[in-house]
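Ticket #4471: structure export looks truncated?
Reporter: QA, pipeline team
Priority: medium

Steps to reproduce: submit the single chain below to the structure queue and open the exported record.
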Amino acid sequence: MTRERNEGDFVEALSRGLSVIRAFSTSHLALTVTEVAEATELARPTARRLLLTLENLGYVRSSDGVYTLTPKILELGMSYINAQGMWDIAQPHLAALVAQTHESSSMSQLDGSDIVYTARVPVAKIIGLSVHIGTRFPAVATSMGQVLLADLSTKELDAALKAPSLSRVVPRVRPSRKEIDAALAEVRTRGWAMSDERLSFGIRSVAAPVRDAQGKVIAAVNVTVNAAETSIAELKKSHLPLLLRTAEAITADFTRISLLPTTEPLQP
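Actual output as written to the record:
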């Protein structure tokens, strides 16, 4: 747990159920009861009951003692995305950016020390890491993560960096706190960030902030390229200006929608 919890209000069964769901990943698509118990550090009978409950609710299915998630699990994440209105607002802008750059573009938000992808328009290119909505990466190793971290106060940054990553990804470059602070200071000055093969070999990207009506950074958008195909100079010269305009356009749309008189205003 990253926060202190009120034991009287904490529902242990819910926490355990969520840990079972989190046990599944792109590298662990199918798990037995024993494997789930080991991954979650739960007793095997407890893991079995939770899996049977999730199966009864339609979130997992089993075959010959092996469990897999079902598409229904997407409802849990999509509820958040739909509530934010992020996809509807960002998708046309990201699609237009991809049409101009012919490179993948994504949007993410910060969760602890990770970025979480909330929108994405990919292109058919081979890249070192699989990315989709809901993917997590360590924030300090990504351009979008640097943009998001740069907007935090010192106290918020300390808390974010202390939070353990849930991404299960070990970045190629692991900067010191001094290096992180220097990099974020540069991001604040120039208004955008770059990651040059910091997360993994072959992955190079630039990112820019998306802000709310008060100027707070609520998300980041990026352009990702294959480092063997696109140089840093080309990325900055050709793609960065288009990315900055796209981020400004998404920010403008968020601001306009937040000002609409609705009973359930958009919450960034």
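Status: closed, not a bug. The export was complete when the record was re-opened. Leaving a note from the reviewer for reference: The chain has a mean pLDDT of 89.
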